[in-house]
Design brief:
single chain, alpha+beta, Umud Fragment, subunit A, four-stranded antiparallel sheet, elongated, disordered C terminus
Length: about 280
């Protein structure tokens, strides 16, 4: 009888709860490292698509099975030619710095100085220039109607200058293999491939596919319809064996669902601890 009672004894709540928290922390670190990561938007270069203070979820594995496509919003590490964008980041105290460090570990902290978020305009083989006779950006001589996502374009009357993104005009650029041409949606303030050069595909961290914070801005980051009118680019050798048509959100859903299920289960387990313990006492 005494042995049966010992088997029924459970770990005390004060021991079980810290254990669950440690497991949840380790799970969050694994998810952040290999599957999903939340990024804080520190500047206005993607307004009004993304505002300062927004948090987006980034799919870190979708580009393991395919390359980025035009119109997608990506997070990437800038090359040595990319200067950090100015951000509103006041001096922080010790507690705030510690909190930010923990946030970085679990994937809810601010991006590093060399992490950027921009929209893919050109992929390998594309010819990009600005502007046509109506002041529009063209990809392979096809103009883009960007009114739906470009907040404020750079002025047309400012002459182009090497190393500066103040002008809307720039000479034709041919995107080389393994590179991407990216631009911010707020062209007037964005520092992007116009003046800082292309981005290696190998530097891409993942695709930003949804705004998750604040709650009133929850929204998906889909590819604008204007990119559907562009002619397809000849496939690169690495893309020959890939499916011709990959659904835009399928990879994101495949990653999010398995991640959310254990997280929901873990949170439910914590909330049910007192009830379960009461039943055991009976």
């Amino acid at each position: 009888m005494q042995m049966v009672q010992r088997r029924r004894r459970q770990m005390p709540l004060w021991q079980e709860l810290p254990l669950l928290l440690v497991v949840a922390f380790c799970l969050a670190v694994l998810i952040r490292s290999f599957l999903l990561q939340a990024f804080f938007i520190p500047s206005g270069s993607m307004e009004d698509t993304l505002l300062v203070g927004d948090r987006v979820l980034v799919n870190k594995v979708v580009y393991d099975v395919r390359d980025p496509v035009r119109g997608e919003v990506i997070v990437f590490r800038g090359t040595n030619d990319w200067a950090p964008e100015p951000t509103d980041d006041p001096d922080l105290g010790f507690v705030a710095k510690l909190g930010r460090t923990v946030g970085d570990l679990v994937g809810v902290g601010r991006p590093g100085e060399k992490d950027f978020i921009k929209r893919v305009i050109g992929v390998p083989g594309d010819r990009i220039r600005c502007c046509d006779d109506q002041g529009r950006l063209t990809v392979n001589d096809q103009p883009l109607d960007e009114a739906g996502y470009v907040l404020e374009d750079s002025p047309l009357d400012v002459p182009p200058s090497p190393g500066e993104c103040r002008s809307r005009q720039f000479a034709e650029v041919v995107v080389e293999p393994g590179q991407l041409f990216v631009m911010g949606d707020h062209r007037l303030v964005s520092q992007d491939s116009r003046c800082q050069g292309p981005v290696p595909i190998d530097n891409v961290i993942g695709r930003a596919f949804v705004i998750v914070w604040p709650q009133d801005r929850w929204d998906g980051l889909s590819v604008p319809d204007t990119f559907d009118s562009l002619p397809p680019t000849a496939p690169t050798p690495a893309a020959v064996d890939q499916p011709a048509d990959v659904p835009e959100t399928s990879g994101d859903l495949v990653i999010v669902l398995p991640v959310m299920i254990p997280l929901l289960f873990a949170s439910r387990s914590v909330s049910l601890l007192p009830a379960r313990r009461r039943r055991l006492r009976l």
